[in-house]
Each structure stands twice: as structure tokens, then as C-alpha cells.
Design brief:
This protein is an alpha+beta fold and 405 residues long. It is built from 12 helices and 12 strands. A hairpin with a 5-residue loop joins strand 2 and strand 3 (77-84). The longest helix is centred in the middle third of the chain and has 22 residues, at 258-279.
Length: 405
């Protein structure tokens, strides 16, 4: 008993010392207000950006990467950080129904109200699923997050260290006056080679639609203005005389600045040539599994419900396609312990991404003539989500948590 008491006292002393040094025992306020590393701040300054200038993020499932882009003083965006996604659940393809364990794909807006410093998964922000497009297609689900703790059941999960920086980027941008930041979630980098690889995928038409927004960002380096009408995404469109549009109704007359149309047309010609070449080449890269539509989504949703009720089910979700290539165990959510174990931090780098193809010379008027995205209908129509409902950690005594028993 004396030995146990002595060890316990030693652990308490260690905890107290670690807390003074800013460890995982930092409080909610300390986590949420942690500054970006000095190297990142130096990179922001070197790229002609302000610490509180607007941000946006891009997510690529197959590559397992989350990029943070930030606005420069000239109005265009440049990438300042790239983080490895620790885990994401499901397969390539969109989220269809609650319980299908799919991480969403599409264009989402994150407001300050969607930031959660109290998350049981270190820090998090709500993607805002379902957005106007999702609702127009009857898709269901809630509490779809980007969060820490490296565990996932339909979310994008980062290491705590990476999430601390990602959260700080959003927090600082809100302090600078940004109303909401855009998150673009894609199945993969939408290059000609990748699109050719997935030409026969059942989700291909959905991805072609997403690619238009991807391309317009590649051309302008400005987050596209996103609207939803006719049950589809439309990008950088003006709606003359329209007070509002309906996500489900047919698109009203709309127009796009000539400079954007011209740049996009030139870009598309170069892409088409690269796509044709890619189709005639055999890729050595294996295809990642993708969800086979609503039928498979419902099977997985039913599996999730029966599992939650304690029924005996298979360890892995049912599938209509080959087994998922995601990190083993990624679909199984592991509730964080009271003393979070922070994985090794992902390296913060500026990734060098090969473009779809050689890009045409960009008219300097393109950025200036972009529709102003201040009143983004996708953001406006999305009701702020409640704080996430996450499984509670297994209750253990303080002694057992500290000793690992």
C-alpha cells in the first residue's frame, strides 16, 4: 500500500510539472488558443499573408491529405500547410445516409459557431453536413467533423498536434473577420490521370460535378462561389434579378464572367488532351474501393444500427465492393481516454502538387471579376450544428488511467 501511495504521489507530481510545460493536460482554453508554431508564422509572412487573413481547406481521401490555403495580400490563395489525415472511415464516394460511416465529399462552409473547443476528440469543427446539395438529395447524417484523437466513424480524424494547427488557422481567420471558411472534400486529386482511372466508377458523374469547382479554384486560386440549384452544385455564377434560388428547383438564368469562362475553356482543352492520353495508358496504381451507391449505404447503416443495439454482427461493415483500403481499424471509433495520447505530429509542409496539366496564362481580371462569395447560399441554408454527440470513454479510476491498468 505504501509503495502504491508513493507511486501515485509521484505520478501526481509528474502531472503537475507536465501541466506547467503545456502538455496534453492543458485546459480547453489553452488548447483552443494555442498559437501556430513560429515556423508556420514565418512561412505566412514570407508568402505575403497576414496571420488573420482568410483561409480555406482541401481534403483528398485517397491521398490522405488535408491542405490549408490562406489568402495573400493580392487576394489569391496559396497553400501554407499540408497534413496527413490520421484516419477517415468508409470508402471513396459521398455520404448517403446516417450510419453509413462515410466521410462526406463536396463543398462545405464552416462558421465560428461550428468550431468546438470542447470536443472529446481534442478539438474539432463541424463540416456542416448535410448542406443544401445533400438535403436536396435526401441525404442524412449529423455531427460530421474534422477532429483530433486519430479515430473515425464517418469523420476526418487528425493527430492532436495537426488538429491544433488546423484549428488555429480557422480561429485566427475568424478573428480577422472571415465569416466562414470553405472546405472542399474530394475523393482524390482530380487530375486527368486519376479521372481516367475512375472512369467506370458508379460515383463518376458526381465527381465530374465536383471537378468543375476543383478546376475553377486551380485556375483562379480563389475559393469558388458555391450555389446549389437543379440538385447540383454550380460555381461562380451570377443570377441576375434573383433574390434567391432553390436547391431542388431548376436553375434560373445565370451567367459567369467572361474572363472566367475564357480561362476555364482554355484549361479544359488542355485537360481533355491529357485525359485522352491517360485513357490509352494502363495505370499501375490500384483503384481504391468506393461505395456502390445508396444500396450499399443502407446495408452499412443497418449494420451500424444493429451493432449499436448490441446484436452480433461482423466486425467489419458489409460491402458490395472489395474491402476498403483505408487504414486498418479506421471505421471503429476508439473513444479517447481521459489522458489523451498524442500521436507523433504530422510534418507541416507545403506540398508540391503536380497540376492537372500545364495551366493557361491567367488573365489578371479573372480574380477581380469573380462573383463575391460573401453570402454563400450553402452556408446560409445550413443550420448550425449542435455540439457533437460522441461516445463517452470507459469509466476508470484515476489510478488505473494513469498506470494503464
Amino acid at each position: 500500500m505504501k509503495l502504491r501511495t508513493a507511486i501515485f504521489a509521484s505520478l501526481i507530481a509528474t502531472v503537475a510539472l507536465a501541466g506547467c510545460q503545456g502538455s496534453v493536460f492543458d485546459g480547453v482554453e489553452a488548447k483552443a488558443e494555442r498559437e501556430l508554431p513560429s515556423k508556420v508564422l514565418a512561412k505566412i509572412k514570407a508568402k505575403g499573408m497576414n496571420k488573420t487573413s482568410p483561409v480555406m481547406a482541401r481534403i483528398f481521401k485517397e491521398e490522405g491529405v488535408l491542405e490549408v490555403w490562406k489568402q495573400k495580400t493580392n487576394g489569391r490563395y496559396d497553400m501554407v500547410a499540408s497534413y496527413e489525415i490520421c484516419k477517415w472511415s468508409g470508402k471513396l464516394g459521398p455520404k448517403f445516409v446516417e450510419g453509413d460511416r462515410q466521410a462526406p465529399e463536396g463543398f462545405y462552409s464552416v462558421s465560428a459557431a461550428q468550431m468546438n473547443p470542447n470536443s472529446q476528440y481534442y478539438l474539432s469543427f463541424n463540416l456542416g453536413f448535410p448542406n443544401a446539395y445533400d438535403r436536396a438529395h435526401g441525404r442524412t447524417g449529423q455531427h460530421l467533423m474534422v477532429h483530433g484523437a486519430c479515430s473515425s466513424a464517418g469523420c476526418y480524424s487528425m493527430t492532436d498536434e495537426s488538429m491544433s494547427e488546423i484549428y488555429a488557422f480557422g480561429r485566427d481567420a475568424f478573428k480577422g473577420g472571415q465569416r466562414d471558411f470553405q472546405v472542399q472534400a474530394f475523393p482524390f486529386r482530380m487530375t486527368a490521370a486519376n479521372m481516367a482511372r475512375y472512369k467506370s466508377d458508379p460515383n463518376y458523374e458526381f465527381w465530374i460535378m465536383l471537378k468543375e469547382g476543383y478546376d475553377q479554384f486551380e485556375i483562379t486560386k480563389v475559393p469558388p462561389k458555391v450555389d446549389v440549384c437543379g440538385k447540383r452544385y454550380v460555381f461562380n455564377q451570377n443570377f441576375p434579378g434573383q433574390q434567391g434560388i432553390s436547391a431542388s428547383a431548376a436553375c434560373p438564368p445565370m451567367s459567369q464572367p467572361d474572363s472566367i469562362q475564357s480561362a476555364y475553356s482554355s484549361y479544359q482543352k488542355t485537360y481533355d488532351a491529357a485525359f485522352s492520353t491517360a485513357l490509352n495508358k494502363s495505370s499501375k496504381k490500384n483503384l481504391a474501393p468506393s461505395i456502390m451507391g445508396i444500396q450499399e449505404a443502407k446495408l452499412v447503416s443497418d449494420w451500424s444500427a444493429r451493432r449499436a443495439r448490441g446484436e452480433k454482427v461482423s466486425r467489419t461493415p458489409p460491402s458490395l465492393s472489395p474491402a476498403s483500403s483505408e487504414t486498418p481499424g479506421a471505421p471503429d471509433t476508439a473513444a479517447p481516454t481521459a489522458i489523451a495520447q498524442t500521436p507523433a505530429p504530422a510534418t507541416t509542409t507545403v506540398a508540391t502538387t503536380a497540376p492537372v496539366a500545364a495551366q493557361p496564362e491567367l488573365d489578371q481580371n479573372v480574380t477581380a471579376s469573380l462573383p463575391v462569395p460573401a453570402s454563400n447560399p450553402v452556408a446560409a441554408e445550413t443550420t448550425p450544428q449542435a455540439l457533437p454527440v460522441v461516445p463517452s470513454p470507459e469509466k476508470k479510476s484515476l489510478w488505473n488511467r494513469m498506470t494503464g491498468q
